[in-house]
Hints:
Layout: E1 5-6, E2 16-18, H1 42-45, H2 51-57, E3 63-65, H3 68-74, E4 82-84, H4 86-92, E5 96-102, H5 113-125, E6 130-135, H6 139-150, E7 154-160, H7 161-166, H8 168-176, E8 180-184, H9 190-198, H10 206-219, E9 223-225, H11 232-238, H12 240-251, E10 258-262, H13 267-281, E11 287-293, H14 298-301, E12 304-308, E13 317-321, H15 344-351, E14 356-360, H16 362-376, H17 382-401, E15 405-411, H18 419-426, H19 437-447
Parallel strand pairs: 5-15, 6-7, 6-9, 7-8, 10-11, 10-15, 11-14
Antiparallel strand pairs: 1-4, 2-3, 4-5, 12-13
Helix pairs in contact: 3-5, 4-16, 5-6, 6-8, 9-10, 11-13, 12-13, 16-17
Amino acid sequence: MKQVKVLLEDKEIPKKWYNIVADLPTPMKPPLHPGTGQPVTHDDLAAIFPMNIIEQEASSQRWIDIPDEVLQKYLLWRPSPLYRAYNFEKLLNCPVKIYYKHEGVSPAGSHKPNAAIPMAYYNKVAGTKRIVTETGAGQWGSALAMATQMFGLECRVYMVKVSYEQKPYRRMMMNTWGAECLPSPSNLTQAGRNVLAEHPDSPGSLGIAISEAIEDAVNSKNTRYALGSVLNHVLLYQTIIGLEAQKQMEKIGIYPDVVMGCCGGGSNFAGLALPFTCDKIHGKKVKIVGAEPTSCPSMTKGPFAYDFGDLAKTTPLLPMYTLGHDYIPAPIHAGGLRYHGMAPIVSHLVKEKLVEARAYDQLKTFDAGVKWARTEGFIPAPETNHVIAAVVDEAMRAKEEGKEKVILFNWSGHGLVDLSAYDAYLSGKLEAYELPDSEIDRALNAIKDFPKP
Ligand SMILES: Cc1ncc(COP(=O)(O)O)c(C=O)c1O
């Protein structure tokens, strides 16, 4: 019998998160206040986040203690198993060993609760009564709905309208966990009303939903906003994935040659990759690869620039690879990962060449996901399919180069609530889609008056 899973006991769960800001060879550019052009202060952010989270967002302390209350909730499904994908390896027939961190075992079905639970906890400690957020396909919204319920907070989620209509099960999950879920753009905020006045049939976008959630949080009593990816504190909370993976790989005496993840806002990729990037900064030879869609290719086609995180320009200006805050994803794209910008930390690592970025079209990603489901059994989330496509690519490269490789990747979530996307793929309704160059001109135009990083 071959060992398929590497498990850690509850008591072996990492007790600290890892903050890569402490180890970066070159400093990151700060987020800027759009009015003054100066770095944002803690007070600038106080209307949307509680101070304990703001301090973590700005922290350069290498290790940050995970509170006992958060660890106790993590133990519901963590430490997550590390798997060896023997069946997929056999199908590929390449000289690779493939390991993956199974983040689909969380109650919400993805890595998102790793960040939702500490956010709900820190808000509770700070006296917040209600949290407002946005969600795309619904993974983040459902994770936050569960986490806020665990800590006795109210929760409202603005869900991108096209997903709200096409993916009712995620809304039902949010409702089951006690949260309110509304389609965005809505009539409840000025940001939503502005979009509807111009485009009554707008399918929505994450940029619009973020604007609505922030406006709601700023104008409501005892309410704060939560973002499910992109920001430093979100990536910090996700590092539990990579820290566990390091312990698990150590148990079997293997170190990966390649570490991979899919990239939307960057949080699951960073969660696995940042502890290994630390090793790389300190001399270890390891390739680190982020996979994104060709339809939303912020890292592979977008400029590195200061841009807003939302359409209504309510966030600070963030230094990141971006497709412009006014980006609206093509309705044909079923694979998720539709955010216009990439996390400043991930963007910085790409710019400094510590991380490589690759883009895959949705036919390739669903092809890889279906192959995975038919060999390994678990049906991946459409987002996760991007990294599986990248794994296939890397395995083929190993074959061409005649080199043996150990690949480790983040299996960020299951696709059981996304079967309509599989249905569209299997019935031939999806097309390969690449962002046209005219869209890059639009992005450059959207950021042309902002400070340059
Ligand atoms: C399963 C899954 N993987 C990956 C992502 C991408 O987000 P991030 O880049 O923040 O991990 C999402 C986002 O919704 C997701 O649901």
